[in-house]
Amino acid sequence: MPARRAASIQDRVRECERFFAQPELEHLRPERAEQAVRQLRAAGTYRHTLEELGIGTKLAWRNHDRCVGRKHWRALEVRDARTAATPADIAAACWEHLRVATNHGAVRSVITIGPPTGVSGRGFRILNSQFIRYAGYRTSAGIVGDPANVDLTDLAYEHGWRGRGGRFDVLPLLIQSPDGGTHCFDIPPALVLEVPLRHPEHGWFADLGLKWHAVPAVSNMDLEIGGLTYACAPFNGWYVSSEIGRNLGDGDRYDMLPAIADRMGLDRTSDRTLWRDRALIELSRAILHSYKRSRVHLVDHHTVAKQFLDHVDREQAAGRSCPTDWTWINPPLSASLTPTFHRYYDPPNPNIRPAFVRRDAARPASAQTPLPPAESPRPTLWRSAVRALGIAREA
Question: For the chain, what percent of residues have pLDDT higher than 70?
C-alpha cells in the first residue's frame, strides 16, 4: 500500500465532522462537535473524551478490512495512556497492556492509546510490528531465528541490545520518541507467555523445540479518529491457529515443514506427494493441541470463519457495509473448506475512518537480507485467485 499523504487541515476537519456525525455519537450535544472543529481549526488538535476515544477505537476495529475477528469489536478494552511523556512511560503502559491482555492465557482484546501526534506529525511510535517479536540473527550459515525480524534485530543491536543467538529470543521493545531518538526496553520475561508445542500423537514433535507466544499485539499502525492520529496505539485480539502455522511453516519464516515431513517419513522428492500439506496439517494439530493444553486462548480457522460471517450478517442487518480484504480473511490452510471463501464482500475502503492505518516501515530493509513483512499479505497464489474471481482488492 503506498504511503498515505499527510492530511491537510481541511481534510482533518472533515474527518472530525464525520466522526461526530457517527450514529454512536448522536447522543452528544451538538456544541461538542462544534467545539472540536473550532479547536482543530485554531490549534491543529483537540482532546477526545474517554467516551469518544472508546467509541472511536471500536469503530476502527469494526472498519479494519483485514481482520477476520471483527465480530468481537464491541468487547475491545481501551486503556488511556495519553499522559505518557517519556519513552519509559510508553514502555510501562505496554507492560501493563501485556499483563491485562494475557490474562493468564484467557486472552483479552485490549488497546493502549498514547498521546496523539503533534501538529508537526511527530509523536511516539513503536518500531516493532508486534510487542513480542523473535530475533533473526545473520550468521555465516544463514539466518538463525525469525527472518522477518532481521532488520529489527540489527536495529536493536545498534541500540545496545545483545541476544543469546537462539531461535526464539524475544526482542526488546524499540520506541521512537517525538525528537526521532530510538529507545530500547527489554520486555519483562514474566509478561511473555509462551506455549511450547507438542503433538497429541507424535512424541518426537517436542524435540523440534518449537514454541510461540500468546498475545499478538500489533504495534506499528496509526489509529486515526476524528482528524487526530495516534501513532502509538498497540492493540490485540487473539491468534488464529493458522497464523502461527504460517509463522513456523512458511519458507521465508521458520521453514519447519521439511523437518516435520522428514520426522513423519514423508516422500519429499516431489510436490505431488503433498508432503507440505501433510506436514502443515500436523503442525496445525500441534498448535491447537498445545494451546489448549496450556490453557491459552486461540481460535481455529473454521470457527473464526463462521464467526466472521455472523459479523457480516449483523452489519448488513444494521444497514452498514463491511469492507473486507478477501485475501486476508481467508485462511492459508484449507481455505475452500471455510465459509468465508465462497462469497463476495464489500471492497476495502482506504478512506474510511476511524481506522487503523498501515504506515511505512521504520527503516528500509537491508539490501543484504530482503525482509518479508511479518504476518504478511497472502502469497501470489491468493492475489491471483482474487484477480480471477474479480474481487476488488487494495493495490
Answer: 89
| Distances from the Cα of 377 to the Cα of 125, 148, 238, 281, angstroms | 22, 13, 18, 21
CB 202 within 8 A of CB 265: no
Give the angle 195-198-201 at the CA atoms, nearest 5°: 155
Q: Do the beta carbons of residue 280 and residue 243 sit within 8 Å?
A: no
DSSP letter string, 98-124: HHHHHGGGS---EEEE-PPP-TTS---
Alpha helices in the chain (DSSP H): 9-20, 30-43, 50-62, 87-102, 150-158, 241-249, 257-264, 275-293, 301-317, 326-329, 380-389
CA atoms within 13 A on the CB side of 249: 24
Q: How far apart, in whole angstroms, are the C-alpha atoms of residue 146 and residue 135?
A: 6
Where does residue 313 fall: left (phi above 0), alpha (psi -120 to 50 degrees), or beta otherwise?
alpha
What DSSP string describes 276-288?
Answer: HHHHHHHHHHHHH
Q: How far apart are CA 170 and CA 134, in angstroms?
A: 5
Tens digit of each residue's pLDDT (9 = 90 or more) over 170-210: 999 999 999 999 999 999 999 999 999 999 999 999 999 99
Rounded to an integer, what is the distance from CA 64 to the centroid of its chain?
11
End-to-end CA gap in the chain: 6
pTM assigned to the model: 0.89
219 Cβ neighbours under 8 A, 6+ residues apart: 94, 126, 128, 129, 130, 131, 234
Q: How far is it, in rounded angstroms, from Cα 373 to Cα 382?
A: 16
Q: How far apart are CA 302 and CA 307, in angstroms?
A: 9
Grid coordinates given for 383: 492475489
Q: Number of H helices and number of E strands within the chain?
A: 11, 14
**Which residues make Cβ contacts (< 8 Å) with residue 313, sequence separation at least 6?**
none
Radius of gyration of the chain (CA): 22
Alpha-carbon distance of 20 to 226, in angstroms, equals 7
Q: Which residues are catalytic?
A: 67, 70, 238, 243
Q: What is the b/e burial string over 291-311, where b = at least 16 CB atoms within 10 angstroms of the residue's CB?
A: beebebebbbbbebbebbbeb
Q: Please choose, from the candidates 377, 373, 387, 383, the residue with its C-alpha nearest in 3D space to the C-alpha of residue 147.
A: 373
